[in-house]
Specification:
Shape: globular
Number of strands: 17
Strand content: 15-25%
Helix content: 25-40%
Structural class: alpha/beta
CATH superfamily of the largest domain: Metal-dependent hydrolases
CATH class of the largest domain: Alpha Beta
Radius of gyration: 22 Å
CATH architecture of the largest domain: Alpha-Beta Barrel
Number of helices: 16
Largest sheet: 9 strands, parallel
Bound molecules: guanine, fe (iii) ion
CATH topology of the largest domain: TIM Barrel
Number of domains: 2
Length: 447
């Protein structure tokens, strides 16, 4: 299949590659074979040949392809709570709202219903890959795997491990280290042995919820499982004052150092939030080539701080963007991209109008723009996961979203005499909404 389209991608932070009327050749496995630019000498010949053989798909003017969004941090079971219970502290929110909700996934029929709605919603929002926390349950988590395979979403899915009786209620925890580890291994086997998962579109993830909810024996065991299975790892790291302080008190070191000693910090690790990383922690994350899932909306409610995104990008940490459903109240990666820009602006300017301007800004350069926001929502997430996704580069998977800037009920307004090049993407990032999302592809297949 060959697509004739215009669009944008951002393989490297800070720059947008404008794809102006290009041909994208895609193989039967959904990988991009070549991207021919309009001015290339063979452009015309290839286009005519594909047109003659009936393989050419032409998108109309006003439509732009972007790499599909990579949501680097989603709690699938928390979807019914989206937009609810945002007024309490993290530790209260977990015990009072979130654990009771997650416990309901003991009921696999409930899980199937909610997970089906969520995956449909995310695909319709342009999220082609999601890194999911599920719950502690086997059957419900398997249902999420099945649903992602059925609906064609690329997904990385973890059975949540949480066995610390001091921090997790009796009604919702792994009752022993064995249960946490065996359950993790069982899900890895289920995903890898799934008859519909030959292409590896769904991957298993070792998922200690966060240090407070796990015993040391479980953290150690999970580090060994991750190594033995070569899996991705995801967890929450230094999210709030309370969470960061808890680990300092229990382990006498930061989350980053503690995860590292348990073998949970490697190239395939994604740390959600990471707001309170010290300079030394950042260096450790960089050296280990681990990644951060930046969750700007969630951080506004639960973190008591703003993640220093620009500093992390300038230190060349791997960073992607996450919705953190339902810590963040929006499933839309576009809204989270805007949130990332807004938060960075406030971190740079300071927030207290009673202070003189010079004293208001205490942090230093923190501002990012739509280019960085777009990068972390797409290519940054792909790099974080070490997967060939998030950019239109030969060898990468064709995971894409089609933005129809002229959609009747859409919210993008382009004016031909002023909006050109990357400024079109700027308007898409700032103003596009669900009606502008015309189509989504994962691995070359429309979903
Ligand atoms: N820390 C431990 N569990 C969670 C969770 O479900 N959401 C968020 N935002 N932080 C957590
Ligand atoms: Fe989270």
């Amino acid at each position: 299949k060959t697509l004739s389209a215009s669009g944008f991608h951002s393989p490297e932070r800070g720059t947008i590659n404008v794809l102006d009327d290009v041909l994208i050749e895609i193989d039967a496995q959904g990988a991009i074979i070549a991207v021919h630019r309009h001015g290339d000498p063979n452009y015309r010949a290839i286009r005519d040949a594909r047109d003659a053989s009936g393989e050419l798909v032409i998108f109309p003017a006003g439509c732009y392809i972007l790499p599909g969004f990579v949501d680097l941090h989603v709690h699938a079971p928390q979807y019914p709570q989206l937009g609810d219970a945002l007024d309490v502290a993290l530790e209260v929110w977990l015990q009072k709202y979130t654990f009771p909700l997650e416990a309901r996934y003991q009921d696999a029929a409930f899980a199937r219903r909610i997970y089906g709605l969520l995956v449909d919603d995310l695909l319709a929002s342009g999220t082609t890959t999601a890194l999911y926390f599920a719950t502690i349950h086997q059957e419900a988590t398997r249902a999420l795997v099945d649903i992602c395979l059925e609906k064609g979403q690329r997904a990385l899915i973890g059975k949540v491990a949480m066995d610390n009786a001091d921090e997790c209620p009796e009604y919702y925890r792994d009752l022993s280290t064995e249960e946490a580890l065996d359950g993790t291994r069982a899900l890895i086997d289920y995903v890898r042995g799934h008859p519909d998962n030959g292409e590896g579109r769904v991957l298993p993830v070792v998922t200690p919820r966060f240090i407070p909810s796990c015993t040391d024996a479980t953290l150690e065991g999970l580090g060994a499982v991750a190594k033995e299975c070569g899996c991705h790892v995801q967890t929450h790291c230094s999210e709030s004052d309370w969470a960061h302080g808890y680990v300092l008190a229990r382990h006498g070191m930061t989350d980053t150092d503690s995860l590292d000693r348990f073998g949970l910090l490697g190239r395939k690790t994604v740390l959600a939030h990471a707001n309170f990383l010290t300079a030394k922690d950042m260096e450790t994350v960089r050296v280990r080539e681990a990644a951060v899932a930046h969750c700007p909306l969630s951080n506004a409610y639960f973190a008591n701080a703003v993640f220093p995104l620009r500093a992390a990008l300038e230190k060349r940490l791997h960073v992607g963007l996450g919705t953190d459903i339902s810590g963040g109240p929006s499933a839309s990666m576009l809204e989270n991209a805007r949130g990332a820009i807004l938060a960075s602006r406030m971190l740079q300017s300071g927030v207290d109008p009673n202070l003189p301007a010079a004293a208001r800004s205490t942090f230093g350069p923190a501002q990012i723009d739509f280019r960085d926001a777009f990068h972390i929502a797409t290519a940054g997430g792909g790099i974080a996961l070490d997967l060939p996704i998030g950019q239109f580069t030969p060898g990468y998977q064709f995971d894409a979203v089609l933005i129809d800037a002229d959609a009747e009920k859409g919210t993008v307004r382009l004016f031909e005499d002023r909006d050109k090049g990357e400024r079109i993407l700027q308007k898409i990032i700032y103003t596009a909404s669900r009606p502008n999302i015309a189509a989504t592809w994962v691995g070359g297949r429309k979903v």
